[in-house]
Model the fold of this input.
Amino acid sequence: MAILSEEILSGDAAVRFDVKSPGEMQHVLADMHFVNYRLASVSVRSELQKSRADVIWDRADSRKSVRYENGQLLMFGDWEQGELNKIVVTMLASRMDMAGIHPFHSSSVRFKDRTVLFLGGENNHGKSMAQIEGCRRRALLISTETTVTDDEGIVISGSKNVYVGPRSKGTERADLPSQDEGVRKFFDKEPEFIPYEGKAPVDLVIMPGMDGHFDTKVTPMNAFEREYQTYHSVMNYFGLNQLLAPGGIVMPIVDTDELRAARGDFVSRFAKDKPYYMVRARDPRLLWDEVEKILKSEGLA
Done:
């Protein structure tokens, strides 16, 4: 029986896996595309720094199941790579949260020395196309799918993969249109993506709405809307709606009331001190025309 122990990490947060396997394993994840797209700058280390496993996985057990007990995820049986990716996202997001590191379901760019964050929020209606259009206007790329901040709301990292890439078995989604198709509809050619690597506060938050039919409309978001949509954005990673595998196997709840309360406090602080706008438009160009107007009206340009 082979034993594999390794840690999967993002920034200062890490998830330790201890795996008992009937055959040799090189790594928990053979494909890192999905977790890097979802959580930004994910890496693996074999030199263990955590004294206790976050995930204990017995691959030799013939019964496929998962549960969460005493702060540890206990896994049994064989799991597809896509299913493992979703488990890693939830566990790593939880450990990031405990470390005061907050992933937002969002894209963001650095435009004329200002950080503009396009919030995924409750729905996802154009954050990727808004990011691409920002780069077409010579903005620097901070993030494509996930923006990570510290507990003071300062951006410290972001996913740089513009497209999710191949989806491993267990992460397939027939309901999501091809991103290539979206780019072809809105852009003559893909712009150059120049990364921004520095830390920076978020200056402006935009909730985009884009479907090819909307009349242009700009609405400042009130305090409830700002906090509500921001909380949706940071909760996107916790797997509360995740069906992991056929047979009704779901992601266990790894959250706690204490962590939720601390997260709510962070969201309130983050949303309080910066402008938020809902911008509806038919296409990314019209949306960004309004973003540039907002930057000027808010004294940010």
Notes: The chain has two domains: 2-100, 102-236+260-297. The mean pLDDT is 91.
